[in-house]
């Protein structure tokens, strides 16, 4: 079983898989790999083999192998073919008490930055320009798996390459290991919350602060306070699009005046599968037309500068804001994405 598990992980690493799903059915298990283009079925196992594989991974991550009814989670650091990887495991049973297993694969820092894959390269330049500010707040929004963390880390690496900076990140959990940054991890069970970490990190005199997620009023207030005291702060927040981010901030008791004083930009992001001529649709997991990390690309809605300030002040400047839907429409018109993915991502 150890050889089978190692072979499974090696194949997942080769394909750049983000999650491994082992799901129970009435008389068998099915194995799925998740990549940027979605879930792909890889193989099927007997009930006995599926249960043995789950038990092995539970043992590996110090979970209770004998407990099959209660949901469990665990983690383990793994080295395979000279590469380090961290596995975050989660199990949950169905009504038949058959366990399912999901393994999140967190890859160690690659030898080189794979780059930012955007449908429209000029958007990368616009994002990089935001990091030239010495203070202020840049917010990223988008659904889970839309590449927000990847985008932020790429921009920070590019900035660090220009000049050495003290960059501190606070995440739950740390998804990308980066030795150039000071990375702190939230642990609410131990009392290590976002607002506590922000307070402590400000004493380190950082040039750039990265907050994994603004979840509550206290964190939102600390983020705004950090931006007001002369720090460049980058954070993520859940909202459908840029204007929704502003409404979400108001819900978290951030006033319009505070937004005017701190907000540099609001970025809404989507990761969309590229059209593959060989697959006549999205590029499948085994297709070699695009490399593993190039099967999808990002589309950004950037609300910044005068457009942002005019909106906060309820002013009209006569210019039409280029929305996420506009960018999606352009990508579809250019043949970069399929109609299905265009319609799926409309806001």
From TrEMBL:
Annotated Bacterial type II secretion system protein E domain residues: 202-216
Domain of life: Bacteria
UniProt xrefs under CDD domains: PulE-GspE-like
Keyword annotations from UniProtKB, A to Z: ATP-binding, Nucleotide-binding
Pfam families the record matches: T2SSE
One example GO MF annotation: ATP hydrolysis activity
Cellular component GO terms held in the UniProt record: plasma membrane
UniProt-listed InterPro entries: ATPase_ComGA, P-loop_NTPase, T2SS/T4SS_dom
Family: Belongs to the GSP E family.
Protein name: Competence protein ComGA
Organism: Trichococcus ilyis
